[in-house]
Amino acid sequence: MAHVQLQNLRKVYPNGFVAVHDASFEIADGEFVVLVGPSGCGKSTTLRMVAGLETITSGDLRIGDRVVNDVPPKDRDIAMVFQNYALYPHMSVFDNMAFGLKLRKYPKPEIKQRVEQAAEILGIEAILDRKPKQLSGGQRQRVAVGRAIVRQAEVFLFDEPLSNLDAKLRVQMRTEIAKLHRRLGKTMIYVTHDQVEAMTMGDRIVVLKDGYIQQIDTPLNLYNHPVNRFVASFIGSPAMNFVEGTIEQADGLVFRERAGAFTLPLTPAWQDRLAGYVEHSVTLGIRPEDLYVAGSPYLRGAAAEATLQVEVLEPMGSEVVVYVRTEGATPHTLVARVAPQDLPEPGAPIRMAFDLGKLHFFDDETEAALGPMALAKTVA
Questions:
Q1: Which of 114, 118, 224, 229 is within CB 3.0–4.6 Å of 367 for a Cys-Cys bond?
Q2: Per-residue pLDDT tens listing for the chain (380 residues)
C-alpha cells in the first residue's frame, strides 16, 4: 500500500523561521492530492520533506506502513518531477529517461522495455533519439515525467511542473497528467500556486497559508464551503467579492452595506445562523457568477437588487466580466460574470441582482466563515 501519512510534520530552519507548522493529513493509496497556496506558504517545503530533500524538524512521515523520517530519498519508493526539467543536455531522450535505471544496475532489456513503455504512454516514441535542445517545452516536460514513470515508484511527487510552460501548454499538460494518474493508479502529490490547476486535477486539495493548513477538502466543497476568507478568496477566478457591512433587524435579519448602498434580506437558513450577530460588523462574500444583471433569465432563486455603477466591461466571448461600484465615500468594487448581452457603458448606472441562496458571511475579526456548515469543515 502506498498511502502517505503526515503526523504533526514541522519544519524549522536554523534561523528560527517556521516554514511548516504541524501539518497532519493522510493521502490514500492511489489518491491525487494537490498542495496549493501563495508563494512562501510551505507547500514545496512539505513536498520536499515527503521526498527526503528536507530534514523533518519534528513529527512523523509514513509511506506505506513504515516511518521514513530518516530513510534516504532513493529508498522511499518515490519519483519526483521538478519545476525545472533537469535534463542532461548531452544525453538523448532515451538516455535521460534510462539514467536512473542504469545507476541502479537494471538489465539493459528491462531498461529498454520500461523506457519504451513510458514513451508510449506519453506519446514521445518519435523523439527518443533527440537531445533536449531539440525539444519544445512541452516535450521536455513529458521527458521529465517519463523519467519518473520508468522508476515504477508507488508515490509520484510533482513540484510546480508546469510553471515554465505557456498558457496553452499548461492546459494540455495538466490534462495529460490527470490522464496519467487514471492510467497508472499511483498515489500522486502535486504542488502548485495555480488554483485552476488545483481545482481541475486534485481528488482533494490542501490549502496552505504561512505554513498552516487552512482547509483540506474536495474541489467542489472548497468552492462552495470555504472555511475562512483566505480560502474563499484564493479558490475561484475571478476571486470572490467581499463587502463590509452589518447584520440588522428590519422585519427579519438583513445585511446592510456599511455606507447603506444596498440592503439584502437574509434567507431563513441565514436568519438562524446569524441571529447572534445583530448589530455586529461582518463581511459578505459573493462569487462573480452569483451576481446577475437584473431581469436575467438565468437567475432562478430568490434575489435582491441594487443600483450600482459600471466601471469596466471585459467581453470574453462566452461571457462578460463586469466591474461595478457602490456609491459613497468608501465605495466597494464588485466583479460579476454575466452572459453576453447589451450593457450600459462605463460610468452609467446598472441594476444588479444578488442570488440570496449563494451568499457567504465571514467574521470580521477572525475571518472565519459563519454558519455551522462551514465551520464543521475547519481543519486548522
A1: 229
A2: 589 999 999 999 999 999 999 999 999 999 999 999 999 999 999 999 999 999 999 999 999 999 999 999 989 989 998 877 788 999 999 999 999 899 889 999 999 999 998 898 888 999 999 999 999 888 888 898 888 889 888 999 999 988 877 888 888 888 888 988 998 899 999 999 999 999 999 999 999 999 999 999 999 999 999 999 999 999 998 999 999 999 999 888 999 999 889 999 999 989 989 999 999 999 999 999 999 999 999 888 889 999 999 999 999 999 999 999 998 778 889 999 999 999 999 999 999 999 999 999 999 999 999 964 443 333 33
Can you list the alpha helix ranges (DSSP code H) found in 41-107?
Answer: 43-51, 93-103
158: part of which helix (H) or strand (E)?
Answer: strand 155-159
Single pTM value for the model = 0.89
Q: Nearest CA to 264 among 275, 280, 278, 253?
A: 253
Contact between 178 and 121 under an 8 Å Cβ cutoff? The reply is no
To the nearest 10°, report the CA torsion of 361, 364, 366, 372: -20
**Residue 35 and residue 55: Cα distance in Å, rounded?**
19
Pairing of strands 333-338, 320-325: antiparallel
d(CA 187, CA 3): 7
> Which 8-state DSSP code applies to residue 152?
T
